Amino acid sequence: MLFPVESHLRDFIAQNIQSLDVNGKRLKLYIDDEGRNGVEYPTDVGLIDILAVDEEGNFVVFELKLSKGPDAAIDQIARYMGWVKKNIAKGKNVSGVIVAKKVDDKLKYAASIVPEISLFEYQLNFTIQKASI
User: Fold this and answer.
1) How many whole angstroms separate alpha carbon 23 and alpha carbon 54?
2) Which of 5, 24, 92, 128 has the highest CB neighbour count under 10 A?
3) Which candidate, 39, 52, 107, 121, places its Cα nearest to that of 74?
4) Max CA distance (Å), the chain
5) Which stretches of the chain are DSSP H helices?
6) Please, are residues 77 and 63 in contact by the beta-carbon 8 Å criterion?
7) How far apart are CA 111 and CA 121, in angstroms?
8) pLDDT tens digits, one per residue of 63-113
9) Is the pTM of this model over 0.90?
């Protein structure tokens, strides 16, 4: 089963960000000085799906890949990571996470030369059962 709309996946991850472990660290949504959180965070180069920070204040950029090809995903996340590094990181590290239903070999090869980018796959479990009366 695929998320029918990228926003559902984005919202699920944003609401559960503290339960994610990326590179051995827990995350929380980034909140800027104006109180804007990291969901669809606006930049000069587009909207970041999710912008988070880890326990040490390092930045983690999430790119959700539902239908884009691997080249588009790598290009997009690299662009966002570069913007974060230049504009708001203030010397902190910036890494990226691409989340996809299935990570194919093309995406693995592309990400393999960018050590700051991690690949994650999502799985859905959904059950319906009859209610007792």
Assistant:
1) 9
2) 92
3) 107
4) 60
5) 6-15, 70-87, 105-112
6) yes
7) 14
8) 998 765 666 889 999 999 999 999 999 999 999 999 988 888 989 999 999
9) no
